[in-house]
Predict the 3D structure of the following.
Amino acid sequence: MWACSGSPLVAEICAGSGLDWLLIDAEHSPNGLESILAQLQAVSGYPVQVLVRPPVNDTVIIKQYLDLGAQNLLIPMVSSVADAEAAVAATRYPPEGVRGVGSALARAARWNRVSDYLADASSTISLTVQIESTAAVEAVDDILAVDGVDAIFVGPSDLAASMGLLGQQEHPQVRAAVEHCLAAAERAGTPAGVNAFNPTTARHYLDAGARFVLVGADVALLARGSEALAADFIPASDGDSPAGY
C-alpha cells in the first residue's frame, strides 16, 4: 500500500492494518524529509515492511533518506544498467559506493550509538528499482543482473505512457510487458512486484509470478470512502461544485 498523505497518523493507522508492506511516497506525494522522518517513527512499532520512494534517483536524496533510517528504498524511473548502478552506489559507503559519511548525525546509526554501523550498513539496506519505461523493459535482464539490486517493481502507469498508451494500464500490450518483466525476475531469482489497480489484476499478476503487489493508497481510500458517504446522504447535483487550490 502507498502512504501518500504525508500524515504520520494515517501512516500509523495503515501500518497497523495487517499489511505486509507500506510505501512512503515522495515522488508523487507531498512528503519532505521532516514528514518522512515522522512517518518512519510512527510506523516503527508495527510488524510491516516499510519502503520509501524518493522523487528521483539522486545520490544526495538517497543519502538523506538512509540517514533518516529508511532501510528499504524504491527508486523510480530506472531505465538502464547505469541507472541501477548509480542507485546501488548511492546506498553504499566507499569504496563500494559513494554514500556520504555522516553517521554521527544520523538516526540510522542512532547518532553513532550503533557499533560497526559504517561496516554493516549496506547489509541492512534493500534496494528495489522501478521498471516503468520501454527502455527499462528492454534492459530488464541486464538491470536484474546488477549486483545490489534486490528486487524490481513494475509501474504500469508510466510504462503505458512510454508505450503510447497513456492511461491504459490494463491494455494487453502493457500487461504483456509487465509479465515479461515478472518472468525475467523469476529466471533471475529476484523478487518482483507490480502496481495493480484492482483485486482482479492483483491476483492475475500474483499468479504470473509477482511476489508483492500494490493494491491501494491511503488518499485513494479516503477519496473513494468519502465519496461513498456523500453519495449515500447528499442529493446528486447537476454539476461540479466550485473548487480551488
About this structure: The domain at 54-218 is CATH 3.20.20.60 (TIM Barrel). Strands lie at 2-3, 21-25, 49-53, 72-75, 126-131, 151-154, 192-195, 212-214.
